[in-house]
Amino acid sequence: xxxxxxxxxxxxxxxxxxxxxxxxxxxxxxxxxxxxxxxxxxxxxxxxxxxxxxxxxxxxxxxxxxxxxxxxxxxxxxxxxxxxxxxxxxxxxxxxxxxxxxxxxxxxxxxxxxxxxxxxxxxxxxxxxxxxxxxxxxxxxxxxxxxxxxxxxxxxxxxxxxxxxxxxxxxxxxxxxxxxxxxxxxxxxxxxxxxxxxxxxxxxxxxxxxxxxxxxxxxxxx
Length: 222
Prior knowledge:
Layout: H1 2-27, H2 43-68, H3 70-76, H4 80-110, H5 112-116, H6 120-142, H7 146-162, H8 169-172, H9 176-191
Helix pairs in contact: 1-9, 2-3, 2-4, 3-7, 4-6, 6-9
């Protein structure tokens, strides 16, 4: 079971994410879109979308930083005050992202127009995102100071997968929260190319410099 969950499944998920996304990009490039529903409902989107996106982006950047420079986090955490500040900030970002996601889920479930344009894959992605964020908060609250033990546990596991030298034992005997967190991540990778998630890849750097634009419906309201 450990080989299946922490070796075979990750490689299948990575292969699906890479190959599937490339095939989709080459064969159906115009399908790579978030399919915005802003015209159908704005108020709840205004509160949910920024909270979720900013929270999850900052958390992903922190995870990437741990993977690239684990020694830097170990050095940072040698001072208790800095360790507490990092852990509290990460937990707060997780709560912020989860609250934003909860608003988006409520919006999609309660609004008939949004429900009509939702697909089964949208709901699968939302459930996996809830599992991913909730398990991360579970780790932060129940198995504290993850920024200190992750560089010596999770980072070698991920690097082992990338170097084709898997070490499932590093996480196989860890807590349930850690296993759920890792499996939810690879499950998101597995469904990546089948969902709206590939819209993350085209980085819209031009949006950072241009002024914001208001989309107005052309037809008169009745």
